[in-house]
Structure formats: C-alpha cells, structure tokens
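Lecture notes, part 5. Sequence design as translation. It can be helpful to think of inverse folding as translation between two languages: the language of shapes and the language of residues. The source text, in structure tokens, appears below.
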C-alpha cells in the first residue's frame, strides 16, 4: 500500500470524524485509530447543590470482577433473536464460555469469559453499541 493511499484514508477519517478505520484490498490491510486522549472539553461551572446523604444501600458499590469489551461494536446476548441468551444472571460460567457476541464490521466475534465465576449483572442491553474496554458483565465477588 502506498503512502498516497494511506494519506487518503487519514483525510477520510478526519473529514468524517472517525475514530477507527480499517481497509483491506487484495492481500494488503491497514487499521488506523485516532488518539483522542488529549481532547479538551469546556465545562461550565455550576454552583454545588446540597444532596441528601446516601443511604447505606445506595452507598454500596458493586465489587465483583468485570468482563470488558475487547473492541467497539454491537453486543448481542444471543446467537439470534429467537434463541435464548448465552448467559443469565446467577449462571455459573467457566473461562472460555461464550458470554455474547460483538459485531464489528459485519463480523461476529464471540465474547468469551476470561475467568470462571457466577454472573451477577449484565451491564449492557442486547443490540447496544459497546466501546473498547467498556464493562459488559459483572461477576459475583
């Protein structure tokens, strides 16, 4: 792939404000990702508002281990709309079990458990877009 084609792809990313771009032709493939870590956002200053003290139940923060999305895509909880979900709350899973599917660029990628445990909470809905590193499943602590 020549530098002219790469520059065209970078220009396309900037023009369309894309964070990721993957391109393949013949036996050549390129994946581009924009670094957005240094974006600044102006936040208006708002006077603090007194809030009631949290109750002991709402103060409890979930402490289970998380399973996160390895990529940006659409999360599917079942193999097809008519099938039951891969996992349910309270279900015991082993490392390697399929927890769901993440569709990225029309490719269905299994989301596999990286650890064994009991599902405490499914943090995303079926057909919801997930980001890289976004928590998807919480295991019981």
């Amino acid at each position: 792939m020549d530098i002219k084609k790469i520059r065209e792809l970078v220009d396309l990313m900037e023009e369309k404000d894309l964070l990721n771009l993957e391109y393949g032709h013949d036996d050549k493939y390129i994946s581009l990702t924009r670094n957005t870590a240094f974006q600044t956002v102006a936040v208006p200053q708002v006077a603090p508002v007194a809030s009631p003290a949290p109750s002991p139940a709402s103060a409890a923060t979930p402490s289970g281990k998380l399973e996160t999305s390895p990529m940006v895509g659409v999360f599917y909880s079942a193999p097809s709309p008519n099938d039951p979900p891969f996992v349910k709350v309270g279900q015991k899973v082993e490392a390697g079990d399929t927890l769901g599917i993440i569709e990225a660029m029309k490719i269905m990628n299994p989301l596999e458990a990286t650890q064994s445990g009991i599902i405490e909470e499914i943090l995303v809905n079926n057909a919801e877009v997930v980001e890289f590193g976004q928590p998807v499943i919480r295991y019981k602590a």
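The translated text above is only one of many valid answers, since several sequences can fold into similar shapes. Residues 3-33 form one domain.
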